[in-house]
């Protein structure tokens, strides 16, 4: 694992943006695994800045996103499809036909999930998977559980995740109770994994994921086993580690 210490959120975003930009520049037709949540928004802003400065070309980039809420259409303003357009895709020269996100409205969840893993495989896997992390250590929507779940699947969100994500919805009741998520295979097959984490409310999860046992009770702990895992974290998120 590579740990990159950042001063604050802005610094996390600049450092992560530089890493992703270098992947795109070295391989213009790379496949990026992308994430939602507030953590990567600054990273996406950095990528947009570089694109506007003429330093980045997304025309051949392909993407696969981690997850989507069950029941939300791609035009719902809290769907992850909308989030990605709003925070990245609409602001760069990416071909949105090359941007993949599980459909929240599928009538056949099993087929949709199986097709998603086939799609990842058919793209040759991801060159880099960007991740945030939930305060309970979840990655994508792989929630703490009794076992790691490899395939893309439908999950019931935990109360703590519903609480954590309620800030984006009008009321807690509006937060979907289920989501489709790439599984641990989809994340771990990436050639590189880049996690961005900031803030005190992630410090416990950072400590458990990095220094605790590899356990499905802390899904991010599986990243200890990834051969090319980089964590970019700010001082607050690292505050419980003995560094
Ligand atoms: C959601 C997403 C995760 C994300 C997490 C943390 O649950 N499914 O991919 O990592 O939120 O969000 P935030 O970055 O807003 O703390």
Describe the model.
With 243 residues, this protein is of the alpha/beta class. It has helices at 9-26, 41-52, 80-87, 109-122, 159-165, 184-188, 203-211; strands at 2-6, 31-34, 62-65, 67-69, 99-100, 128-131, 153-156, 178-181, 192-197, 229-234. The strands form 2 sheets. It has a 7-stranded parallel sheet with strand order 1-10-9-6-2-3-5, covered by helices on one side. It has a 3-stranded antiparallel sheet with strand order 4-8-7, covered by helices on one side. α1 crosses α2 (41-52). The longest helix has 18 residues, at 9-26. It is globular. Bound molecules: 2-amino-2-deoxy-6-O-phosphono-alpha-D-glucopyranose. 2-amino-2-deoxy-6-O-phosphono-alpha-D-glucopyranose binds next to α5.
> Total number of helical segments?
7
- Class by alpha and beta content: alpha/beta
Measured as a percent range, the helix fraction is 25-40%
Across the major sheet, the strand order is 1-10-9-6-2-3-5
According to DSSP, the number of beta strands is 10
User: Which small-molecule species are bound to the chains here?
Assistant: 2-amino-2-deoxy-6-O-phosphono-alpha-D-glucopyranose
What is the 3D shape?
A: globular
Largest sheet: 7 strands, parallel
What's the end-to-end separation, in Å?
14 Å
Architecture blueprint of SSEs:
Layout lengths: L1 E5 L2 H18 L4 E4 L6 H12 L9 E4 L1 E3 L10 H8 L11 E2 L8 H14 L5 E4 L21 E4 L2 H7 L12 E4 L2 H5 L3 E6 L5 H9 L17 E6 L9
Helix pairs in contact: 1-2
The chain binds 2-amino-2-deoxy-6-O-phosphono-alpha-D-glucopyranose.
């Amino acid at each position: 694992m590579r740990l990159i210490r950042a001063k604050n959120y802005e610094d996390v975003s600049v450092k992560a943006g530089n890493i992703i930009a270098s992947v795109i520049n070295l391989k213009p037709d790379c496949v990026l695994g992308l994430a939602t949540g507030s953590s990567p928004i600054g990273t996406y802003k950095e990528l947009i800045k570089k694109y506007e400065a003429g330093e980045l070309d997304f025309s051949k980039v392909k993407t696969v996103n981690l997850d989507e809420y069950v029941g939300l259409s791609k035009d719902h303003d809290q769907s992850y499809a909308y989030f990605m357009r709003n925070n990245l895709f609409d602001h760069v020269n990416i071909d949105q036909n090359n941007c993949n996100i599980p459909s929240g409205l599928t009538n056949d969840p099993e087929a949709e999930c199986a097709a998603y893993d086939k799609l990842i495989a058919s793209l040759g896997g991801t060159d880099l998977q960007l991740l945030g992390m939930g305060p309970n250590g979840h990655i994508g929507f792989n929630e703490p559980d009794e076992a790691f779940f490899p395939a893309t699947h439908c999950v019931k969100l935990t109360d703590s995740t519903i609480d954590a994500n309620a800030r984006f919805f009008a009321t807690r009741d509006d937060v979907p109770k289920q989501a489709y998520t790439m599984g641990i295979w989809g994340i771990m097959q990436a050639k590189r994994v880049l996690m961005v984490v900031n803030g005190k409310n992630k410090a416990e999860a950072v400590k458990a994921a990095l220094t605790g046992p590899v356990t499905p009770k802390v899904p991010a702990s599986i990243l200890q086993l990834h051969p090319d895992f980089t964590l970019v974290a700010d001082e607050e998120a690292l505050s419980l580690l003995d560094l």
